[in-house]
Amino acid sequence: MFEHILVAADFSPAWTRLESQLERLRALGCRRLTLAHVLVEGYTRAPESGHAGHYEQRLEELAAHLREQGFETDTAVRVGAVAPELERLAAERGAGVILAGTHGHSTLRDLFLGSTVRDLARRARRPLLLAPVHSEVAPGTEPVCRPLLATDGSDAARTAEEVFVQLLPACGRGVVVSVGRWEGDPSREEEHREIAAHVRELAERGGEDAFATVLPGQGRPSVEIGRIAEERGADLVIIGKRGRNPVADLLLGSTAEAVCRHARRLTLLVPARADTN
User: Fold this and answer.
1) pLDDT digits (tens, 9 = 90+) for 31-57
2) Are 137 and 262 in contact (CB under 8 A)?
3) 165 near 138, Cβ under 8 Å?
4) What pTM was estimated for this model as a whole?
5) Mind listing the pLDDT tens digit for each residue in 202-222?
6) CB-based contacts of 82: which residues, under 8 Å, 6+ apart?
7) Measured between alpha carbons, how far is 9 from 159 in angstroms, rounded to an integer?
8) How would DSSP label each residue in 7-18?
9) Which residues make Cβ contacts (< 8 Å) with residue 102, sequence separation at least 6?
10) Angle between the 158-167 and 189-206 helix axes, to the nearest 10 degrees?
């Protein structure tokens, strides 16, 4: 799935931080990259915004550097709405994953997704890899090797679980987290037993001792997931999102959006029915 990644390039100062993550992804099989930039229709702040050739040249300069590092790299400039164009291009080029940096342009300098990335997260039909590129977050430097799966055992999490299991042979010992509300509430004990049994089934598929299991019985899920990822040294958080919805307000799910919004490490958002090729 990670062999071919479409990388959203916006030429911001954060590009070097995003580029630094590509070398880390070789451990997951990344060998080919498509660098993509979308010119938004009606965007007039930059005088050259209507000149695709200008951006093609800039992308080619970035691509040349990546080729020197051993990546097979091509480029593409599109015009239109960013999220649909990136999704369309990923399908055309056969990219299994879309990579984007999370660096919203907020005066509060909080860890916001930014409207474009949020729209992409809601609409993407294939896994979306989000890399925090804020100056407040120290970028990882070691190869990605310790995945954390956040799951509630629902149908929306199934594809994310499959991605996690597929990655385990190439990674070190992973972590599975599921946050509930059973602590101190006997009426929710059945919920606790069901998720524990579900995680045991994952362990049967993932291999003996392939991951540790953490099942907090209280707390806000997004906060607990972030805390455990920090404590366990996870370098890739994997979480599912709700299935595609034809209405305009597509849903990530509150936990998935909160995890992505405050992520301090690579986060893979996997649609319930993901296209990976």
Assistant:
1) 999 999 988 765 544 444 456 788 899
2) no
3) no
4) 0.86
5) 999 888 789 999 999 998 888
6) 8, 38, 40, 116, 119, 120
7) 27
8) EE----TTHHHH
9) 111, 112, 113, 114, 117, 130, 131, 132, 133, 134, 260, 263
10) 40
